[in-house]
Structure formats: structure tokens, C-alpha cells
């Protein structure tokens, strides 16, 4: 049974999560792309995710785009999706939440899926009647994955590198991403 997706926006922002980082594969292997954020001091208390601001004093968008170009320019579908993905790295964003939601929306559009727009109104420790997948944002959480390798740009050098950004899958498999994902067995429950 599928439950509607509701984006958590009212929890406290935590470091070491996928909210401001992702991994790609380049000529050197697994590579992190991290969005710099403005940290509030401890005297200000905890900061809600919806209030986290991006630190644009560093040209992270230009650096990320150049890194993506270098890593994926030769992939089968980079040019096919380039015009869709590039604006994420051209337009400045102040809010990390806004940037993340725009990124997710762009990926959904590339995959020809409808993006859920529901957001939480308040934080719930244990949401009743809902499946809770918030733990998946924790970069230290290692889900049990039994996924089929697919051809990657640097697979001949490093072998198959799992647990990368959806961009890796998109640039390498293109429109076949959904079919590929439907055939994977992924255990996501935090046992």
C-alpha cells in the first residue's frame, strides 16, 4: 500500500545528513558534493530545517556544476538532461529547503513523475498511521541494498559504485531509471 509522501520541514536541522550533501563518482572514485550552509550559534538554539540558509559567499554552484560536467559529460544521457539540471546551478537560492525541493521537483520532471507537494505542519516524533523514512537522510545510515550494478562512466576504473546521487543513475540510464528502480529490492526499514 502506498502512502502519500509528506516532506518533513519542521524537524531540527542536523549535520551529517543528505540534506546538504550527495555523492557522485568521478575519475578518482566516490566524490562528495556539499552545499555550504550558514550555521547559527549554539546560543540561538536549534535551527529548524525550513530555516536553514545557504552560504552563497562561496561559489559552490559553479564548482558543483563543473564537477558534474567533468564527471558525467561522457555519460549516455548527460546532454539529454543538461538543460533541465543546469538551472539548479545557475539560479541562486537562499533557503536549503527551497533548493532541495526544486532539485527534487526537477528530478521528478526528468523521470516524468508527479512530485508530491505536502509538507509537515509540525514535527511529530512518531507519526501515526504513516511510514516514517526520515532516517534515510542520515548520511551515516547504511541501508541494506541488493541492487544490480549498472554501467557507470568510471566503472572500468573503480568497478560499480553504489549509493550515489540519483544524478548518477539519471545520466547513465536516462529514461530507463524507473524501470531499473522497480526491479531492485531495497530494504529501507531501520531494523
TrEMBL record:
InterPro entries (UniProt xref): WbqC (IPR014985)
Source species, domain of life: Bacteria
Name of the protein described by the UniProt record: WbqC-like protein family protein
Source taxonomy: Bacteria, Pseudomonadati, Bacteroidota, Flavobacteriia, Flavobacteriales
